[in-house]
Each structure stands twice: as C-alpha cells, then as structure tokens.
Amino acid sequence: MCEVSDSAVLVKKRVTLDDVAKVAHVATSTASRALNRPGRINAETEALVRQVAIELGYERPENFWLRTHVLTQKVGVVIALEQYRMLAAIQDKLILEHYLPVLYPTVPNQSARIIKREFNNVDGLIIDNPQTPGRIHLEIPNTEPLVVTNCVIDEATCVVPDTEQGVAVLLTHLKSLRHRSITYFYAKDCWLGESILQALQSGCEQAGVILHPVGNVGNNLEAGARAVAAWCRHKDSAAVFCGDYSALGFMQELNRSLKMLVPDDVSVVAIGDAFIGRLCPSVTTTLEVPYRRIGTEAVRQLLSQIYHPSGRERRVKPMKMSLVNGGTTGIS
C-alpha cells in the first residue's frame, strides 16, 4: 500500500466509500452498512457492494495509512452549537468514513488555545468561522491537517459559500421586482457579512442600484428590531440582513411600531439558513448558505489531507448559494 523510507513517503490514491457507492449505484449509507454491518440490507445488494469494494481495492481508513505515529480515528470539530445543520452533516460524513467526531464548542478568546492543545489528540481539525485567524495561522504547524469553514484564512483549505455568485442571484431577483435601493445590515466581525458586502458593493455599482450598508447588526431578534431606526433614514425599498433572526426581528418591529407590512411597504431578504425562514408565518425570502454541503465538503478535504500528507496548501472551495423565494419580497 505504501513504502516508507528515510526521504519520502509514496502513497497511491485512496479509494473512498463514496467511490464504492457510486460504482455500485447505491447510497453511501447503504455501502457503509454493507461493508460494516452485514445482514442489515438486502443480501443481493450487500454482495454487490462487497464485490465492487474488492474490485476497486477499497480498504477501511484504519488500514490505509502507515505513519510513524498511530492515527486516533478522531477528528476535532471547533464550531458554535447553533450551527447544528452543518455540525450534523460533518458528523454524518465522519461516521460514514469510520471516524469519531470530537466536538469543541467555540468559546470567545479561547479558540487558539483549544486548537493548539487538541492537535495532540486528533488526526485533524475542522474549524468553523474562527474569530482569531491570525493567531490560528501562527500556532498550527503547516504539516497538520486543517480545514476552515465559513471564513478565508492564509495557509489553510477553506470551504465557504460562494458569495459573489449568491449576490448575483439576489440582485437579479430584486431587480426583476424593480427594486433600485437596498439597505444591507451585517456584523462587521463576521467573514460572511463582510464578503457579502464586498459582492453587493460591486454588483450594485454595475447594476445601478443604491446601497446603504449598516454594520454592527448581530443576528438576533433584538438587533433586528433596533435596525428599524436605521432603515428609516433612507426607507429603501429592500432590506437585506446577513442573518435570519435579525431579519425576523426587523419584520416584527416594523409592524409593531410603524404598522408597516412586508412585502407591501418593504421587501426583506435574509442571508443564512432557509430552514429558519420556513418557520416564519410568511416564509422569509432567503439567500441560503449551504451549511450541510459545506460540512460534507470540509470532511472530504480534511480526510484527503490525512491520507495524503504533503503539507497544507491554501485552497478556497466555494459552494453554490441558492435563493429560496418566500413571501417577504414583492414588487417595489
């Protein structure tokens, strides 16, 4: 499988569980049950999957890589608990690949310390939206497997939403409804908020749309309610929030204090999790961040580093965003 010498390590391309499932024309979860839990699926399907695995040369991860130290079969995940949809996708993919996810909830001002310590206990780390990218960059050796999500930092593979593509879709939607002015609310310490702002500034300039950015607006109901006063300065026909809860708080306060209706008086778009928007009485139009796909891709990128160690390289993997058209946008 591999040859270890004093000067080099040669590794052949690893066949993954996804490869086996694709050739066998079954779901990855079905392939996993066939190979790891005999008797749980149809006998004919199980035999087919096992035959494909043999022909492709698939081996379980714990038998694949010969290192000078023993793999723990654990991956650390540093993530805020409210990112439950992405966390679920990360856990599902790791378990399918026979890895145990170890969760380290983010703690303000302590991420760098946790990360430095835990690299001794896991085979690699997935870090979501780090608050101190400069310190993380300095404290993680370049040889350690690392993937960052929802943020771009130097010397790491980063899996992020494609904000330029997403904003283009959003502006096309708003222009089709004859909107010519937008107030954009975002948090200044958030990579997603800043990245959306840059894309909006470029896109609005090209489209001839007026943009009024308002920073320091967190993603919670109270911040959304306070944003009504800022919106009243210009009363733009569309309000875009980098956050689903802040958008909801804005709509509630707009109706309570000003007796204004959405989308009759103003159109509202949230950027975030469309699942939250579907819980509202009037489904929120949402530029959806593909959290589950980001989580799954982060695991793929990390396992590639674990099994093909050659030093990290900076790579940004953008994931397509989509617009969920709800009842909060209308003709201006």
Description:
The protein is of the alpha/beta class. The protein has three domains: 12-69, lambda repressor-like DNA-binding domains (434 Repressor (Amino-terminal Domain)); 72-159 and 290-318, 3-Layer(aba) Sandwich (Rossmann fold); 161-289, 3-Layer(aba) Sandwich (Rossmann fold). Helix content is 41%, strand content 19%. It is built from twelve helices and 14 strands. It has helices spanning 17-24, 28-36, 43-56, 84-96, 111-118, 133-139, 163-176, 191-207, 221-231, 244-258, 274-277, 291-307, and strands at residues 2-4, 9-11, 74-79, 100-105, 125-128, 146-149, 157-161, 181-185, 210-214, 238-241, 267-272, 285-288, 315-319, 322-324. The protein has a six-stranded parallel beta sheet, with helices on both faces. Strand 10, helix 10 and strand 11 (267-272) form a beta-alpha-beta unit. The longest helix has 17 residues, at 191-207. The N and C termini lie far apart (63 Å). Residues 1-12 and 62-70 have low confidence and may be disordered.
